[in-house]
Amino acid sequence: MFADYSSSELLAIFAMQGFAGLSLFSIFVLMALGLAIIFGQMGVINMAHGEFMILGAYMTYLTSNLFEALMPGLYGAYFIVAMVVAFVSAGALGALVEWAMIRRLYHRPLDTLLATWGLSLILQQCYRSIFGAREVGVSLPDWLMGSVAVTDMIEIPINGLFVMVLTLLIAAGVYYLMYRSNWGGQVRAVVQNRPMAGAVGINTGKVDRMTFALGCGIAGVAGSAFTMIGSTGPTSGQLYIVDTFLVVVFGGAASLLGTIASAFTISQAQSTMEFFLSGSMAKVLTLLVVVGILMLRPQGLFSLKIRR
Amino acid sequence: MLNVSDYSVAYGQSRVINGMNLDLGKNEIVAILGRNGMGKTTLMKSLIGMIPSSGGSARLDSTELVGLKSYQRVAAGVGFVPQGRMIFSTMTVEENIRTGLTSTGSSTIPEHLYTLFPVLREMKSRRGGNLSGGQQQQLAIARALASNPKLLLLDEPTEGIQPSIIREMARTLRRIRDEHGLSILVSEQVLSFALDVADRILVIEKGNIVHDVPAAEADESTITRYLSV
Question: Which fold would CATH assign to domain B2-12+19-227?
């Protein structure tokens, strides 16, 4: 399949598909970070994670419309505001959902799957009723338009670069929060042994709620980033939830570094192969490889060496 | 200090602790002895709030513990070292101790904990799960002491620990009591350890205290009879 291209063309194709893959990588990482916290740390199978992402995307859409209508002069800054709005609204909804539903299900992990799947259907219908079934898109501010020409043949889109830098910053922030702060220590203690964490003085209910809200909030930011590479519809989140679970499981459920490494591998493999094969063949091949590796390493790419 | 009166704990319909009365003085170390299944662990877990009690009251000084959540009991001054130690195995030694600081609001580990258990300072960046049993026991005690408890509950602290360390542990517990002025309630199956560490010995049988003597006057053969199967 490479025969039709010269070697310099191939290099350019790989570079550009690689960068296109980086946008996908960013969405995967942000989605998977949230899910790694909720699924990897708390053990809750959150099927509605995609809908939290889409909530962030709709919030970004609303913010951009608001800026366009009220202060067109500041339109360039809307994206920053939109990310904050997306984080706060998805986080707040997450906290509400945890309080109303998830906290009753911690000892029944499989039931969280059904309950959150139901939640995802409810949210999809809400979006359809509020925003309509048609997909909506946002227009990018000028400074995110265009691309950097590295050579004659290789061009890198600026918005992709921006999203990637943002993703890495957020990933570093999450790492700091989980592994360097006292709060992160409490989260990990609760996750490992909820009754014992209570018995050393940690308010486990509060920690659970904050953790779930954080995971959902990050999904909201992923939604903000998502508006840059696709248009938002009520069911857009569905396309990402399976991939995201794949990323988390492949990376090793409790490892943030593993999550990032596996998001990179899967998004790059998919993006590069999509150019040469059809999209679904690319997906099939990726899945086959992931399944193969998981059979050899069921604990995922990265796992802690510890006496259990 | 700790006054437990008419205290009951049940799993569903089966009552494990049945109208128990128990008093613990300030600075006192009390050992509860009993065979397997007599309710030692159930009593300990219910005092820290891991399992609910079904009747009676448990007061720490003037605070009623019944009805409080675990973390509120810790804030009220109860420290807990569970059976099997239950270290957070993927977290480092230092992080483990830090979890105990939550209720104090402080973020620096008190120096005296490392003075008490120097080995924890050496191991502070090792993962808790990779320590030996004896080291984990020290870590579990340090974690409980980090919350500055008035009352320390230890559930079978000698389980799975080698004999030489058991004697050392009895000395350490007495030292903690002398230095911090707290009360200790320890459940045990090993009589020699209980005699080493405690001021008073209780024997629990079918969820009730059936024997109560000062350790100095304890008659080994009488107690052994309670413990033999």
Answer: Rossmann fold (3.40.50)
Mutate to test the interface with B, among A187, A200, A209, A256 (most CBs of B within 10 A): A200
Tell me how far apart the alpha carbons of residues A26 and A36 are, in angstroms, rounded to a whole number. 15
* pLDDT single digits (tens) B114-135: 999 999 999 999 999 999 888 9
Of B69, B89, B102, the CB nearest to A200: B102
* List of chain A residues whose C-beta atoms are within 8 Å of the C-beta of residue B102: 182, 186, 200-203
Q: Which residues of B165-176 are buried (b: 16+ CB within 10 A; e: fewer)?
A: bbeebbebbbeb
**B179-208, pLDDT tens digit by residue?**
988 999 999 988 999 999 999 999 999 888
Q: Give residue-wise pLDDT tens across range A103-130.
A: 898 888 888 889 999 999 999 999 999 9
Q: Give the integer Cα–Cα distance in Å for A188 and A255.
A: 12
Among chain B residues, the shortest Cα distance to A307 is held by: B129
Q: Which residues, other chains included, contact A249 with Cβ-Cβ below 8 Å and sequence gap of 6+?
A: A294, A300
Please judge whether A185 and B99 are an interchain contact, meaning their C-beta atoms are less than 8 angstroms apart.
yes
